From TrEMBL:
Molecular function in Gene Ontology: transmembrane transporter activity
Protein's UniProt name: Protein NRT1/ PTR FAMILY 4.6-like
Record-linked CDD domains: MFS_NPF4
SUPFAM superfamilies: MFS general substrate transporter
Intracellular or extracellular location(s): Membrane
Feature: compositional bias, Basic and acidic residues: 292-302
Family: Belongs to the major facilitator superfamily. Proton-dependent oligopeptide transporter (POT/PTR) (TC 2.A.17) family.
Chain segments carrying region Disordered: 279-308
Keywords assigned by UniProt, alphabetized: Membrane, Transmembrane, Transmembrane helix
Domain of life (superkingdom): Eukaryota
Listed GO CC annotations: membrane
Membrane topology: Multi-pass membrane protein
Compositional bias annotation for Low complexity: 280-289
Taxonomic lineage: Eukaryota, Viridiplantae, Streptophyta, Embryophyta, Tracheophyta
């Protein structure tokens, strides 16, 4: 290979045939476009069922409303949490290219299982003989329940792998050594959320209508066909993709450095001796250049010591250790510090996603008790997310092409609006959304009481558009926070663990769904000790104290916002930390 060709290759990247990726031939907008199209199809397949799943479980599998909500939140939580597995595998073992293909195949298998169960009557529990809410139906159990949960969690495994591999695969297509490449990468994350919404729009309108009017077997079938279609479309882009070469487990590095720091803290208690015994022989490392510098030109700086922040972690490179497994470099120490710095930001986003979990559970059930007529059109309750989805699809291009360029001119900065400012805006909107949700539920219950329909299954004389308000605020919060989180974690994380770091965005969603389930169970346990029936228990939503639950969520979201502001105000971006450390080099 001649020298000119070597200089034109992208160090650390290969094409789909495992050959060095070449600038101008691999990566760029075209390659990322295939990723965006695939994401539309993938999210369509996932959300078509997830958005309406709570009604499928209650009407056909005969779970109670609270049990249905918990099954859905656990399913969604598991799917998003498994994104960490996909991200870990992409960083450590397999390129994102192959992780996606394997995960899409697993998801299609799970959807096929659910389609078969929906088609075959004998694989479902018998239908209820009475529509009365006072008579319980036979809940799915035994082999039928096993088939249901096997299908659901195969889907969850596939979705997790896709969510953990597809966003970093798209983001890696851009050259971060250039200003244009970094701006295009930022636009990619905005349009990734836009494409999520495109898939969601089709899912909560067309596919949900099919499920409600033609049967769930058709809904599952459409999802299966869609995810299968995404595979050849993804493969068409193979010649133009560039894929990051996995360089080993980032988790191993994190635990090794932390273990070394703890071990040496106890072994070398004399801080003065420890300082004298700094193991500079192990601290030579390649400085990661700041954004705008050539990351492919690695500057070796022997005997560089770690930065002074988080000094406890620095002990990992103090004094030579007898155990070679605990030997760490200054570069590894700095990478672990980055992870520790972004963790409080990650933790602060979990409460927002707990609020978002209500959109696919209680909010859908609320709407199902209301008048869902829109003129001559009867809107399925599970299609309510169409409001935030359409709003996101309108706002995302405006944000990318108007708001961001304007902010860049005003602030004279590359990003215009920082990642943490975007996340903070989403957290503020989540507080407002929960207050609105509580007020709307109070109005809904008042209408039920005044109309004498508390114990009736008839639709209440109140339009479902009231529920759309909380969808609108939470949808806006999702746009600001999800895109901000993904770009923040990808940009700030060490290059060796970017897929895993980006997956933290989905892990935050997962923990939010799990927290929602825990809160529902905890609230029911506590309130059952002081009342005949808990706040959120039974088959009649009109007898729930859902408004109290929403007020509690509003208070917790406010406390969480304070927690976030504490950490965000103290966070220094990677490029800022490097500029501050340059005079000491």
């Amino acid at each position: 290979m001649d020298e000119a060709h070597m200089l034109n290759t992208c160090e650390g990247y290969v094409d789909w045939r495992n050959r060095p990726a070449v600038r101008g031939r691999h990566g760029g907008i075209l390659a990322a476009s295939f990723v965006l199209v695939v994401e539309v199809l993938e999210n369509l397949a996932f959300l078509a069922n997830a958005s309406n799943l709570v009604l499928y479980l209650s009407k056909f599998m005969h779970f109670s409303p609270s049990s249905s909500a918990n099954v859905v939140t656990n399913f969604m939580g598991t799917a998003f949490l498994l994104a960490l597995l996909g991200g870990f595998l992409a960083d450590a073992f397999l390129p994102t290219y192959y992780i996606y293909l394997i995960s899409a195949s697993i998801e299609s298998l799970g959807l096929l299982v659910l389609t078969i169960q929906a088609c075959v009557t004998s694989l479902k529990p018998p239908p209820c003989l009475s529509a009365s809410t006072s008579i319980s139906c036979e809940q799915v159990d035994g082999g039928k329940a096993l088939m249901l949960f096997a299908g659901l969690y195969l889907v969850a495994l596939g979705v997790g792998g896709i969510k953990g591999s597809l966003p970093p695969h798209g983001a890696e297509q851009f050259d971060e050594n250039t200003l244009q490449g970094r701006k295009q990468r930022s636009a990619f994350f905005n349009y990734y959320v836009f494409c999520l919404s495109c898939g969601a729009l089709i899912a909560v309108t067309i596919v949900v209508w099919v499920e409600d009017n033609k049967g769930w077997q058709w809904g599952f079938g459409v999802s299966t066909a869609t995810i299968l279609l995404s595979i050849p479309i993804f493969l068409i882009g193979s010649p133009v993709y560039r894929t990051k070469v996995p360089i080993g487990s980032p988790v191993t590095t994190i635990f090794k450095v932390l273990a070394a720091a703890v071990y040496k803290s106890y072994k070398f208690r004399d801080s003065s001796n420890s300082a004298i015994g700094m193991d500079t022989s192990r601290t030579s490392y390649t400085t990661e250049t700041s954004e705008g510098e050539d990351r492919n030109t690695k500057r070796k700086e022997p005997s560089q010591t770690p930065t002074e922040s988080l000094e406890f972690v620095n002990r990992a490179v103090k004094n030579k250790t007898v155990n070679p497994m605990l030997e760490s470099t200054a570069e590894q120490v700095e990478e672990v510090k980055i992870v520790l710095r972004i963790l409080p930001i990650f933790m602060s986003t979990i409460m927002l996603n707990c609020c978002l979990a209500q959109l696919s559970t209680f909010s859908v059930q609320q709407a199902s008790t209301m008048n869902t007529d829109l003129g001559s059109l009867k809107v399925p309750p599970a299609s309510l997310p169409v409001f935030p989805v359409v709003f996101i699809m309108i706002l995302a291009p405006i944000y990318n092409h108007i708001i961001i360029p304007f902010a860049r001119k005003v602030t004279k900065s590359e990003t215009g609006i920082t990642h943490l400012q975007r996340i903070g805006t989403g957290l503020v909107l989540s507080v407002v959304a929960m207050a609105v949700a509580a007020l709307v539920e109070m109005k809904r219950k008042r209408v039920a009481a005044n109309s004498g329909l508390v114990n009736s299954t008839k639709p209440l004389p109140i339009t479902f558009l009231w529920i759309a308000l909380q969808y609108l605020f939470l949808g806006s919060a999702d746009l600001f926070t999800l895109a901000g989180m993904m770009e923040f974690f990808f940009t700030e994380a060490p290059k060796s663990m970017r897929s895993l770091a980006t997956s933290l965005s989905w892990a935050s969603l997962a923990m939010g769904y799990y927290l929602s389930s825990v809160l529902v169970s905890l609230i029911n346990t506590i309130t059952s000790k002081y009342r005949d029936t808990p706040w959120l228990f039974g088959s009649n939503l009109n007898k729930y104290h859902l408004e109290r639950f929403y007020w509690l969520m509003c208070i917790l979201s406010g406390l969480n916002l304070s927690h976030y502001l504490f950490w965000a105000s103290r966070y220094k971006y990677k490029s800022m930390r490097k500029s501050l450390s340059q005079p000491n080099n």
